[in-house]
Amino acid sequence: MTTTGVGHSVHHPFPLFPHRKNVLDAACRTGYGSKIMAIAGAASAIGVDVDPESIQLAKTEYHDDKIQFQTADVCALPFQNNTFDIVVSFDTIEHIPNGDVLIKESWRVLKDDGLLLISTPNRHFGSPGRFREEKPLNPYHCFEYSIRNISGLC
């Protein structure tokens, strides 16, 4: 696996990937990313989020025959193995106490030749000078990953 990207640059090339693919948007919040998948030509996009209010807003805001939204925990996905061509999770893993579970669940629901795309703030930029065991500067982050940390989870 190759890990690249700094900051949020990974968001920009994404619309090139989902054409005719079945995509899971893990922790979709209000559905914006799921809608981008549909516009980019995804065969289907399913957005899941643990917050029922976010899912309700997503259903209201982004209706499209190719998009579904449902309440679900990204660490216990309600899908069979080998279901999706692509799993995306934007700026979520840093909010989860056990980020490795998100990655394991994503791999489980991905097809063998699938693509897992995760974005997260780089610890070296978000909390510079902080030791790994120290709490991140952002109070909403459970953990911030460096490229080495997140690569080790994959």
Description of the structure:
The chain has one domain (15-153): Rossmann fold (3-Layer(aba) Sandwich). The radius of gyration is 15 Å and the shape is globular. Strands 3-2-1-4-5 form a 5-stranded parallel β-sheet. The chain has 154 residues and is of the alpha/beta class. It starts with 21 loop residues before the first strand and ends with a helix. Helices cover 26% and strands 21% of the residues. The longest helix is centred in the last third of the chain and has 11 residues, at 99-109. Mean pLDDT is 83; it is low at 1-12. It comes from Polycladomyces abyssicola. It holds the Pfam family Methyltransf_11. Residues 24-118 form the Methyltransferase type domain.
Task: List its salient traits.
5 helices, Methyltransf_11, Rossmann fold, about 150 residues, 5 strands, alpha/beta, disordered N terminus, S-adenosylmethionine-dependent methyltransferase activity, globular, 5-stranded parallel sheet
Describe the secondary structure blueprint for this structure.
Blueprint: E1 22-26, H1 32-39, E2 44-49, H2 52-61, E3 67-71, E4 84-90, H3 99-109, E5 110-119, H4 123-126, H5 147-153
Parallel strand pairs: 1-2, 1-4, 2-3, 4-5
